[in-house]
Amino acid sequence: MRFARTYTAVLLSVVLAVPLLARQTATAAAAASSSPQALTLLQNSLAALTRGQSLTDITLTGTAQLIAGSDDETGTGSLRALASGAARSDLTLSSGPRSEVANLITAPPAGMWSGPDGVGHAISYHNLLMEPAWFFPAFAISRRLTNSNFVASYIGPETHNGQAVIHISVSQTHPSPDPPGGPTFAHLTQVDFFLDSTTLFPAAITFNAHPDRNAMVDLPMEIDFSNYTAVNGVRIPFHIQKFLNNSLILDFQIQSVTPNSGLTASAFAVGAGL
After folding, report:
1. How far is 124 from 106, CA to CA, in rounded Å?
2. Tens of pLDDT along 112-164?
3. Peptide bond connecting 259 to the previous residue in cis, omega within 30 degrees of 0
4. Can you spell out the DSSP letters for 201-236?
């Protein structure tokens, strides 16, 4: 009798769970659809940036100012990225070199950073989910337009940093359910684009970083782009500023741009040159 009651209870729970799971799946599928207006704006923004040219990789070199608390250093640096989802930054400062690489092409995604001591530190998985090429908006947009797992939402016209912009938010769906009590995958992958209302050039993108051991805590990041200049027809933001919690941490002034130089995935292997 005890076995019969247990079997009946289990069977009943399964019967009840099946329609619930079906409803949850249907709800998720219905919710995971992009706004046509948002997609059109992103497509038009990418067209305005690239003028229809195909870009597979980019290398930006220039001067860098790194600010960390009371430390304020200047030097030179290079920012490199693949359109498929990998990027690295290498800075040469008065205290020594600083490097960071994020590679979403590998499975699973991997990343690492190092300071002047040259010791590599792994980047937590939840901090690899935003945008590796945060410094090159054309790749940030194209990756979201070519991956059906991204969902774009039209927020509308706003004023951002005193500039008239159109706000679009993009996040990524995941086939598995989110773990209970933790941040959603959509939240961890959310990147917001603020497009200049006239040119559609990205004026800024925002996302959240998190402490290595706590994905529940948001650390607001903002990348501001200005001084767009045509290089071989492609519009490049020659001034890039990175903010953490509204405080400037990196100011990068581009001096040279090299598109489609033939960079390969080996240049973004985690541990290479770190």
Report:
1. 15
2. 999 999 999 999 999 999 899 999 999 999 999 998 899 999 999 999 999 99
3. no
4. -EEEEEEEE--TT-TTS-EEEEEEEEEEEEETTEEE
Do 263 and 144 fall within a single domain? yes
Please write the tens of the pLDDT for every residue from 76-87: 999 999 999 999
Cβ neighbours of 80 (radius 10 Å): 23
How far is residue 128's CA from residue 256's CA, in Å, rounded to a whole number?
27
Radius of gyration of the chain from its Cα atoms, rounded to whole angstroms: 21
For residues 48-57, one letter each, b for 16 or more C-beta atoms within 10 angstroms of the residue's C-beta and e for the rest, the string is bbbeeeebeb
Residues forming beta bridges with residue 207, ordered by sequence position: 221
Output the CA angle 78-83-84, nearest 5 degrees. 120
CATH number at residue 91: 2.50.20.10
